Amino acid sequence: MSVLVPTSLDAALQAIAAAPDATVLAGGTDLMVEINGGHRRVAGTVVVVNRVPELCTWYHDPRSGTLRIGAGVTYAEIERDPIGQWVPALAQAARTVGSPQIRHAATIGGNVGTCSPAGDGLPVLAALDAVVELQSSAGTRLVPFGEFMVGPKRTVRQPGELITAITVPVLSGWQGYAKVGVRNAMVIAVASAALVVGDGSVSLALGSVGPVILRCPEVEALVAELADFGERQLSVDAIDRCREAARRAARPIDDHRSTADYRRHAVGVLAGRLLRRAFPNE
Amino acid sequence: MSDASNEATGEGLAYTLHVNGVGREVHDAWVGESLLYVLRERLGLMGSKGACEQGECGSCSVLIDGNLVCGCLVLAASATGQQIVTIEGIAPVGAPSDVQQAFVDAGAVQCGFCTPGLIMATHSLLDRSPEPSEMEIREELSGNICRCTGYGRIIDAVQRVAVSRRAGAQ
Prior knowledge:
heterodimer, A: alpha+beta, five-stranded antiparallel beta sheet, four-stranded antiparallel beta sheet, 12 helices, 14 strands, 35% helix, B: alpha+beta, 5 helices, 6 strands, elongated
């Protein structure tokens, strides 16, 4: 057994190529909870990836209007400017991740790698049509987030692949994230939602109410039809219909954190709340 | 690449941690040990407390390369080559830091179990934001749970330090 702490991307990729089933450790805020609780055995190789400089940087490209966030960038950095200015909904989600202690360690790559339906960053990435970059010794592949997550904590990442970056568009329209939990801080989402307003269209994604993050095509079509984007206007009746459609889109379960009924209710409230913030005029 | 493996002997891991400015050797360690465990059980540094072991309570808060993190959520063997500061590194016994003294003066310590973590979090907060609003204090200390005080006196203690540092700087 060994713990490898590579300090370059090449070294990290070599380590994972040599041990394709290695446990990949980023900030540790998911993995260590499982290890401390005895829910996960660690044998073989652990590859620690949060000390790889190439993974801990971001690159804003104004020409393509995109932000490439290295997988090792922490949520503490994402909640601050300048990333907060470019992707405000992601910064809002980041601010709700755990506590300052958690955000100093937790990375966006780790959030995507764990891919819990309750992951706070994930609804935002789904609403933004983010792209996940995976590298291995065989090369690089880009996977839209909607295809990356295939189930609760299940992704299309293959053994030997490393999540290296997440690319999101930098948009000018309103965007936001909302979440329900038992307190304001240090809470795992019981239900969550992210709304992104584009040019005459919106994207709505729901978290913690299904096996994967759910986009809401029915709500998106309703808003495109009924909203006045210039006046930022959407009627009370239209928001009611969207709330109902969001509830219908949810596929929640009962578990130790909440009930399916409550989650379905809450996610409708969140969808309506975000739509009213985006379209403040009735 | 630093490598904390010790496969040749078939025994546990061996590695070095830099804690409070001193290199500390760890031998025969299990791969999954948290930094909190190693600090307390292998290095004898009992100031960091272990309660929830899932990052919720903050009683194990330490600084790694200047960032406040939960010691229980750091894989100890991954922290090689980083500067770790624990509550023992904040001030020597008998000469409390201004934050520690303010907690005493404000009555912000009752059972004391959460106190080391809150002292670490307060130092981290005031280093980054010397004059925090009450809302900012509440948000920044939201990862440290205290079941005794109700937080009022803790917030008072943080504000006392901010005021005294500002007065001292003038």
